[in-house]
Write a structure and sequence with these properties.
The chain has 148 residues and is of the alpha/beta class. It contains 5 helices and 5 strands, in the order E-H-E-H-E-H-E-H-E-H. The chain has a single domain (10-142), classed as 3-Layer(aba) Sandwich (Rossmann fold), CATH 3.40.50. It has helices at residues 17-29, 42-49, 78-87, 105-113, 126-143, and strands at 10-13, 36-39, 66-69, 96-100, 118-121. Helix 3 (78-87) links the parallel strand 3 and strand 4.
Length: 148
């Protein structure tokens, strides 16, 4: 019998370690996600999702329930990651929440045009940041019905 890798409930694409740690801590504190995969740049996100590079042995069909995606990423910009996901027939159903520091209208408009399900500007204050992550998790991981 073949052992399959377990799909993460949430894929966190975030290059800033402090924001990643705060996001994971908030999700765990409120018991919103057990399986979280954190990748640090856009290239690694694409490799993970498309089972390429160091993730070539990962089963591509084990997709995350949701993706939290930063925009200002090294190697491959978040909007390019978003576009690649939404163009792929096996991945396009995954809800993508853009969670970024960018308030630029151009980024917001392009993210929605490419298929983002939500756009959240990261609060600077830690408590507000944790609360925002909690609310995102409650809606997208508990209330929202996803394709299985």
């Amino acid at each position: 019998m073949e052992v399959r890798d377990k799909a993460p409930e949430l894929l966190l694409v975030e290059d800033f370690e402090e924001d990643a740690i705060l996001t994971i801590r908030a999700l765990k504190k409120y018991n919103l996600a057990n399986e979280i995969k954190w990748v640090e740049d856009g290239e690694e996100a694409i490799d993970f999702l498309f089972a390429k590079g160091k993730y070539e042995n990962r089963h591509k069909e084990n997709t995350p329930t949701i993706i939290l995606l930063d925009l200002k990423l090294p190697k491959v910009h978040g909007l390019d990651v978003l576009e690649a996901i939404k163009k792929d027939s096996t991945l396009k159903h995954i809800p993508i929440i853009v969670m970024t520091s960018s308030k630029e209208n151009e980024d917001i408009e392009k993210a929605y045009a490419l298929g983002a399900n939500s756009y959240v500007v990261k609060p600077v204050d830690f408590q507000q940041f944790a609360e925002a992550v909690k609310e995102i998790g409650i809606y997208w991981l508990i209330l929202n019905e996803v394709k299985k």
